Amino acid sequence: MLLFLALLLPAGPYVIGPEDVIAVQVWKEPEISRRVAVRPDGKISLPLVQDVQAAGLTPPQLVSALTEAFKLHLADPEVAVVVEQVHSKKFHVLGEVVRPGAYPLLGPTTILQGLTAAGGFRDFANKKGIQLLRGDRRYSFDYNAVLKGRKLEQNVPLEPGDTLVIP
Question: Is residue 22 within 8 Å of residue 43, measured between CB atoms?
Fold first, then answer.
């Protein structure tokens, strides 16, 4: 039971990634406050401070970095950062599914749930030969066995960057 609960709890504070959309609010400075997307290089562009690294930081860490940067131009800047849209956490499904593609990973999602998001299998899918690619590792997933209550340990939570391959 504890292992199951650990899988559902977030692993730690949210880390901003490329393509995420964040709102940067500077108290009493509406011309500086704005909604920005994190660029592929991990930076955001804001008036006065130009390019600031955002990817790889938590919102509180970005607040600290922006506060320091704005101090060069403003007296006692009060900065808030809100992650409005998460686009950096994705998994991919390809092969013999109805809707192959990239899917957002917004919460705990198992392999079965990922396959459901992709619309299920096409007619000639090899349901016993599914592969989960995670970095340089490869894991097997036997859909039929998991549905019958066997090999349930194969139905692991997906992680950002995972790819499910359905032959």
Answer: no
Sign of CA pseudo-dihedral 80, 84, 86, 88: negative
Q: Does residue 1 form part of some domain?
A: no
User: Where residue 48 sits, what CATH number does that domain have?
Assistant: 3.30.1950.10
- What does the block give as tokens for 71? 């101090």
What is the reported pLDDT for 106? 81
Q: What's residue 11's pLDDT?
A: 57
Which domain covers residue 37, as residue numbers? 21-85
Tally of CB atoms within 10 A around 2: 6
Place of tokens 């393509």: 19
DSSP output for 143-155 = HHHHHTTSSGGG-
Residues facing residue 85 across a β-bridge: 21
pTM listed for this prediction: 0.73
